[in-house]
Amino acid sequence: MANTVHSQPRYTKRLMLRPFRRRDVSSLHDAVTASLVDLQPWLPWIEGYDRGVSQRFIRESVSAWAERRAYDFTIRAADDLDRHIGNVSIWTTSQQNAIGEVGYWIRSDESGKGYGTEATTRVIQIGFEEMGLHKVQLRIAVGNTRSERIAQRLAFTLEGTLRDEVKVGDRWLDHTVWSMLESEWAVQRERHRAEGTIA
Ligand SMILES: CC(C)(COP(=O)(O)OP(=O)(O)OC[C@H]1O[C@@H](n2cnc3c(N)ncnc32)[C@H](O)[C@@H]1OP(=O)(O)O)[C@@H](O)C(=O)NCCC(=O)NCCS
Fold first, then answer.
1. N or C: which end of the chain has fewer CB within 10 A?
2. Within 6 Å (CB) of ligand 1, which residues are found?
């Protein structure tokens, strides 16, 4: 497995993805506070959120990238690089079996534009083509239909349901697991290229 991910920006049709920098705290904090209602049902770290959570996230993100533990990207519109649109991350869950997982969120006032699907496509490409993964997974809370639509639009296969997988507030959420294999990516990559989503 290659597992070397460079830190230069990546581009899609409309977006730029790059690693976090310390000075991204304000733009990240703005995006989270503008999206609390939509993030809170699904993401455990939202409980008790304050600016310090974003500060610690960026500090940890910089270390994780340097130590090759996880790759977090800030998503920016190519025509407005100052505004944080959302996060997309990829990390290895099994080194031996070359399996990785992707997670994402998009700020509320930019949702429904296909940005989640577009950014996730580019990060899946990193997983297969830079990290050398054999399989990429998504874990999605049961009931999170917007996120399920991303898995379906990207032609992931539903593998099954994990019971009480994540505790959000005082609720335990079942999660579905979705996956794509490297052989399937080879086919999907051509579709995304034909649609102009990725180069
Ligand atoms: C789930 C999430 C990432 C989707 O991001 P997005 O950029 O809106 O997604 P896309 O625009 O690529 O579209 C995904 C689907 O959601 C639909 N959708 C997006 N916003 C919507 C809205 N406000 N109301 C209804 N449907 C919406 C889109 O139409 C699309 O469905 P389609 O394929 O049937 O057309 C975003 O809503 C989010 O961050 N939610 C909270 C955090 C979260 O759930 N993260 C994922 C954890 S697994």
1. C
2. 38-39, 42-43, 104-106, 111-117, 140, 144, 146-147, 149-150, 153
Residue 161 CA to residue 39 CA, distance in Å, equals: 21
Does any domain span residue 103?
Answer: yes
Condensed to tens digits (0 to 9), the pLDDT of residues 74-130 reads 999 999 999 999 999 999 999 999 999 999 999 999 999 999 999 999 999 999 999
User: In total, how many domains does the chain have?
Assistant: 1
Q: Do 100 and 127 contact (CB within 8 A), yes or no? A: yes
Residue 1, in any domain of the structure: no
What residues does 86 pair with on adjacent strands?
Answer: 75, 106
Q: How many whole angstroms from 2 Cα to the centroid of ligand 1?
A: 31
Residue 171 in domain: yes
The CATH number of the domain holding residue 118 is: 3.40.630.30
Work out which ligand 1 atom sits closest to the CA atom of 153: 33
- Domain around 168: 10-195
